[in-house]
Design a protein that fits this description.
This protein is 39% helix and 16% strand. It has 13 helices and 13 strands. The longest helix has 21 residues, at 145-165. Bound molecules: flavin-adenine dinucleotide (FAD). Flavin-adenine dinucleotide is lined by residues 34-40, 57-60, 65-67, 80-83, 216-217, 270-271, 300-301, 333, 335.
Length: 340
C-alpha cells in the first residue's frame, strides 16, 4: 500500500491493491471536487477509493445539488430526482467504499413505472412486465403490436451500443468521437427519439408513451438523439426504483461513504476560481479568499459556468470559448412544490 506515490500510480492500480476504504495516506495526493451533487459525490467516492485525499467543496449550505432537500413548515421536499433507473451504479459506489448499498438504503421497485394519463381520461400503465405491456399496447392500438416488438429490439440495440459500449466514454477528444462514430452510425443516431419511435408505432398515445423518458434527463424527444431509447431498455432490464425516505437518503448515504473513506465535505464553500499553472489545475480559490492547493481539480458544477466563471480567459482554449458561447441554455425545468 505504501508504494502509492503519484496520482498516475493510483489510476493504474488493480482493485485488490488499492488502499482500504479506511482512509487515505497522509501524503496521498489531494483531489478537490467542486459540487456535491450526485456527480461530484460519485467522483469523490471513486477518487477516495483509489487512495486520494478528497475535499468536496459545495457553495450551498447542504449537499445534493439538484437533489438538494428543502425543509419548510414541517414538510420535506426532494428538489429534483426521484426515480432510479440504474441501481447497480449506486451498488458499485458502495462496494468501492467497502460497504453494501442495501445496509444503508432501501430501494423499492415501482410497479407500474409510470401511469400516463392522457387528456381524454385514458391511462397507460407503463411497467416492466412484458405481458402487461404488450396487452396495454394491444388495447390502445392492436395494429401496433408488431411495431412495438421492433421498437423494443431497436431500443435494446441502442442499449448495447450506446450504454454498454459507449456509456462510460467521456468524448474528450475528436479521436474519441471518431472511434464512436461506427456505433453512432449503426444506431442511426442522427434521428430524433420521436422519429425513431414514430417509425415503429402509429398511435399518438403510444408514440408519446415510448418517447417521454428523455424528458427525465431534460431532453426534448423531438430533438434528442434516438440513442436515448436505451432508457426504455434500461427500465426493462433493471426496473425503476425509488429510495425509501426520499432521494435525500441517497445523498446522505454518499456523504457518509465519503466520510468513511476519510474524505471531507465542506458546505458554504463557494469556489471562485480554479487556479491554473502552465495548463494544469493547481488548486482553487474560494469566495472567502481561502486558497486550497490540489493535485487534481474535478469540477462538477455546470460546464458552461465552470468555463465562463471559474477559469480565467487566458487559460481557456479558443474553441472551448466558442463552444460555450454558442451553446443555447435553458432553465431546464420550473418546479412547484406543494406540501399536502
Ligand atoms: C426536477 C428534476 C427532476 C429530476 N428527476 C430525475 C430522476 O427522477 N431521475 C434521475 O436520474 N435524474 C433526474 N434528474 C436529473 C438529476 O437530478 C441530475 O442529472 C443530477 O442530479 C445532476 O447531478 P450533478 O452532480 O451533475 O449536478 P448538480 O446536482 O447540479 O450539482 C452541482 C453542484 O455544484 C455546486 N456548485 C456549483 N458551482 C459551484 C461553485 N462555484 N463552488 C462550489 N459549488 C458549486 C452546486 O451548488 C451543486 O450542488 C432530475 C432533475 C431535476 C431538476
Amino acid at each position: 500500500m505504501n508504494a502509492f506515490r503519484t496520482p498516475e500510480d493510483m489510476w493504474e492500480l488493480p482493485p485488490a491493491t488499492r488502499p482500504a476504504p479506511s482512509g487515505p495516506l497522509p501524503d496521498a495526493p489531494h483531489a478537490v471536487v467542486i459540487g456535491s451533487g450526485f456527480g461530484g459525490l460519485a467522483s469523490a467516492v471513486r477518487l477516495a477509493a483509489k487512495g486520494w485525499r478528497v475535499t468536496v467543496l459545495e457553495k450551498l449550505d447542504a449537499p445534493g445539488g439538484r437533489a438538494y432537500v428543502h425543509h419548510q413548515n414541517g414538510h420535506v421536499f426532494d428538489a429534483g430526482p426521484t426515480i432510479i433507473t440504474v441501481p447497480f451504479l449506486f451498488e458499485e459506489l458502495w462496494a468501492l467504499a467497502g460497504r453494501k448499498l442495501s445496509d444503508d438504503i432501501e430501494l423499492r421497485a415501482l410497479d407500474p413505472f409510470y401511469r400516463i394519463r392522457f387528456d381524454d381520461g385514458d391511462e397507460f400503465n407503463y411497467s416492466g412486465d412484458p405481458d402487461k405491456m404488450r396487452a396495454e399496447v394491444r388495447r390502445i392500438s392492436p395494429g401496433d403490436s408488431a411495431g412495438y416488438e421492433r421498437f423494443m429490439a431497436e431500443a435494446d440495440h441502442c442499449y448495447r451500443l450506446g450504454f454498454e459500449a459507449l456509456g462510460d466514454k467521456a468524448f474528450d477528444t475528436v479521436g474519441d468521437l471518431i472511434k464512436a462514430s461506427p456505433a453512432i452510425f449503426r444506431m442511426r443516431g442522427w434521428r430524433s427519439l420521436h422519429a425513431m419511435v414514430a417509425a415503429h408505432l402509429k398511435h399518438p398515445k403510444l408514440r408519446m408513451a415510448m418517447s417521454l423518458q428523455s424528458l427525465l434527463i431534460g431532453g426534448n424527444p423531438f430533438s434528442v438523439t434516438c440513442i436515448y431509447s436505451l432508457i426504455n431498455a434500461l427500465e426493462r432490464k433493471y426496473g425503476v426504483h425509488w429510495a425509501v425516505g426520499g432521494t435525500g437518503r441517497l445523498v446522505q448515504g454518499l456523504v457518509s461513504l465519503l466520510e468513511g473513506q476519510g474524505g471531507v465535505l465542506r458546505c458554504n464553500a463557494e469556489v471562485q476560481r480554479i487556479e491554473v499553472d502552465q495548463g494544469v489545475a493547481t488548486g482553487v480559490t474560494l469566495a472567502s479568499g481561502e486558497r486550497i492547493a490540489a493535485d487534481i481539480v474535478v469540477s462538477n458544477a455546470d460546464t458552461a459556468w465552470t468555463y465562463r466563471n471559474l477559469i480565467e480567459a487566458k487559460h481557456r482554449r479558443h474553441w472551448t470559448d466558442r463552444k460555450v458561447e454558442n451553446g443555447r441554455y435553458s432553465m431546464s425545468l420550473f418546479v412547484w412544490y406543494f406540501g399536502t
